[in-house]
Amino acid sequence: MKVLIIGSGGREHAFAWKIAQSSKVKKIYTSPGNGGTRLHGENVSIDLANMEELKSFVLSKKIDMLIVGPEGPLVDGIRDKFEADHEISHIPLIGPDARGALLEGSKEFAKDFMKKYNIPTAEYRSFSIETFEEAKDFLKTMNPPYVLKADGLAAGKGVLILDDYDEAVNELNLMFEGKFGQAGSKVVIEEHLSGIELSVFVLTDGKSYKLLPEAKDYKRIGEGDTGLNTGGMGAISPVPFAGRDFLDKVEDRIIKPTLSGLAQEGIDYRGFIFIGLMNCSGDPKVIEYNVRMGDPEAEVVIPRIKSDLMDLMMGVAEQNLDTRELIIDDNTVITVMLVSGGYPGDYEKGKIISGTDKTEGSILFHAGTENVSGRLLTSGGRVIAISSLADGMDKALETSFRNAEIINFEGKYYRKDIGFDLK
Ligand code: AMP
Ligand code: GLY
Question: Which atom of ligand 1 is nearest to the CA of 193?
Fold first, then answer.
C-alpha cells in the first residue's frame, strides 16, 4: 500500500515510523513532513486548501490511504471533500468528517453532546456577546477559579483559568471582542475540576473500537508545571495512577456512551478520539475531546503498540476493526521533548542539530526539524521527542535524559522533571 500522512510533527513521524514497519506498506509520503519523516519515505508539499492539488497527487501516486494527523484539516472537512468526489471517494481517509470533528472544533458542541449522552464532565453554560449580562450572572454563581473556553479552535490557547471575578469578566469581554478571532464568538464557562489529568485514546471504525494505551503529558514549559502552556514537553505511558478499575470506569461511563452518541447523531466516525480526562478522586470526567492522536502522546502510545498499525488502520477503513489484533507492550515509554530556546514565545530557527547519530536506546521522533542539503536544522519550537521504552519508568527516564544531553543545538531546552511527579 501507498500511504499519505498529513502533518509535520512528532506525531506524524511516529505514524511514519510505525507503519514503515508493516509488510503491507510499500511507500510513505508525508505532507509536509519533517527531517524525521523523510527517513521513512518522501516528504511532499501539498496545499490542502487546494483540493485539486491533493486529488491529482493522490491519483497520480496511486495512494491507497490517507492518515490525517492534525485537527485543522479534519475540522475543515477534508474527509467530506474526499467523499464528495467520486474519483477519490473510494480511497480511505483516517479521521472523522466535519460533523465528527466538531467534538474538537466546537467546545459548545462537545459539551452539549456530553450532556445529551450523560457523559461525566464539568457543569457549564455557553454564551455569546448577546448574552454577556447572563454570562456575568452565571460567573457569580460559580466558585473560582473560573474556566473560560473559546468555542472554536484557538491553537491550544483558547482556555483561560482565572482566580478573580473581575479579571474573568474582563477576559470574557476580550474574547467576545475577538481576542481569539471567530473562535471566541461563543464562550463556554464551566466548573473548575480538581484532580490529576490524563488522556485515553480510542481508534474506531464507527462500529467497534480499540482502546489504545493511556498517556499523561506535561504541558507547561517550566519544571514543576510552571510557566506558559506549550504543545507538550513530554509524556508517559502507562500512567501509574490509572489502574484497571479507573480505566474500566472510563470505558463504561465515557467511551461507550461517546461512541453510541456519535452513532445516534448519525456521525460515521472513523479515526482516533483523544479524550482528555480529569481523575476526580477515582471518577473520570471529560475535560475535552480531540479528534486525532495527541502530540507528544503519540510518541509514547505508538511505541507501545506491538501489532501492525497499518492492519488496524485497514480495519478502520473496512469497518472490521473487531477482527484485527491489538497487542500492547507492558513496558513504559517516556518521551522528553527538546525545544528551541524561547519557546513557547519567540525563538530562532535554522540551528544545526548534532548528535542524533550518537544516541542509543531511544527512538527519536522529529517535530521541528528539516533537512537542508544534508544538514539537520531546527525548524520549529518543539524540535525532537526522545522516546525510550523500558521495563520501568526509571530506566526509560535515564535513557531519554542521557540522550537529551547527547543531542545538541544552540538554545536547546528540555524539562528535567518529566515523570518525577509519578514516582
Ligand atoms: P483544553 O484546551 O480543553 O484541553 O484545556 C486546556 C487545559 O485547561 C486542560 O488540559 C486542563 O489542564 C485545563 N482545564 C480545562 N478545563 C478545565 C476544568 N473544567 N477544570 C480544570 N482544568 C481545566
Ligand atoms: N498534547 C496535547 C495535544 O496534542 O493536544
Answer: 20
The residue whose C-alpha atom lies closest to atom 12 belonging to ligand 1 is 197
Longest dimension (CA), the chain: 60
* Cα–Cα distance, 191 to 286 (Å, whole number): 12
Residue 328 CB neighbour total at 10 angstroms: 16
**Phi, psi of 58, rounded to the nearest 5 degrees:** -60, -40
Ligand 2 center to 294 CA (angstroms)? 4
- Strands in 196-204's sheet, in edge-to-edge order, are 209-211, 196-204, 271-280, 283-290
- CA torsion sign for 96, 97, 98, 103 is negative
Site residues for ligand 2, CB cut-off 6 Å:
217, 232, 290, 294-295, 297
For residue range 71-84, what is the model confidence (pLDDT) as tens digits? 999 999 999 999 99
Which of 11, 274, 415 most suits a substitution to test ligand 2, by most atoms within 8 Å of the C-beta? 274
**How far apart are the CA of 297 and the centre of ligand 2, in A?**
7
Q: Which atom number of ligand 2 is nearest to the Cα of residue 290?
A: 5
- Specify burial of residue 47 (Cβ count, 10 A radius: 0-12, 13-18, 19+): exposed
Dump pLDDT digits (tens) for 372-385: 999 999 999 999 99
What pTM was estimated for this model as a whole? 0.96
User: Which residue has its alpha carbon closest to ligand 1 atom 3?
Assistant: 288
* Helix, strand and coil in the chain, % to nearest 5: 35, 30, 40
CA angle 276, 282, 286 (to 5 degrees): 25
Alpha-carbon gap, residue 69 to 82, rounded angstroms: 16
